[in-house]
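We modelled the chain as a single entity of 312 amino acids. Its sequence is:
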Amino acid sequence: NREPRESEANPRSAILNASNVSLMPDASRMYYTLCSDENPLLQEHCTIWYRNRFYNGEWGPAVKLPDQINIRHYTNTHPTVGYDWALKKYLLYFVSNRPGGAGGKDIWCSEIERDGTFGEPYPISINTPGDEITPFFHQPSQTLFFSSEGWENKGGFDIFHAKKTAEKDWKAPVNMGSLLNTADDEFYYTFHTSSKFAYYVAGKRGKDWMNTDIFEARVFIDYQLRAFDIQSKTTVENATIEIVDLKSGANGKYNTGPSHHDLKIKLEPGTIYDIKVSANGFEPKTFQVDTESISYFTLLEKNVFLHPYARP
């Protein structure tokens, strides 16, 4: 195995700190920040840079992003890039405390044109008068993850997700819940599509200090099924649920039991399931559940109405 080595992106100046590395999806370009803060966690005096990767794997010279991104006298940090299906182009998301936002640190967006130029940045609609930081755009699900003090939270920075719906439009952010968020700070959320693992940073902070750790979490979806008689609207007991993952071929069979009419199972994100519900005296019902656009912990619920077999 190749031993780790110091990146060429690190500054030679002792008064600068390099951080917040983000790669293009094909790893052809590395974005990062250079900050002059004595405490690198503050991120108050930062600029965004990039380096392109050569065919031999080496990184090219450092390029500072243009003035409309690195506006003077304000911080510009936490870059992340993702391809937007509605706009059909790559977008650079970053954090800045410049004028024109909702207040504090906000998440801004710049469209990357085909010629490599950067469009005029604009603040996105999920910002609040509090701070929004550490954006991460999950391209397969078109979902932005970020941390916020401004949205209703459990204390400090909580991790939220917001679904992209159209050009420059977002659904209302949703708190990731108590599986991740606590009364302390949680930020730098990322999700790895293939492994189904999420990674994030959590810690406690004081006036001029912060203790942090990296956490990992296996992402799953709670799926709750309830079976009913479509005619009487009463519950159906002893229903059998058969599940097939259409991508992996994995399958399973479950029973609701004699005293229950519902069943909660765990599904994987990023796939499609065939689900069959059957019970004695009823016609079976088959349907599909698509989790390809889900990249976070969530609960899905479905009521299944079964038709009784016709009596002779």
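As a brief sanity check on the tokenised model: The chain has a mean pLDDT of 90. The chain has no helices and 23 strands.
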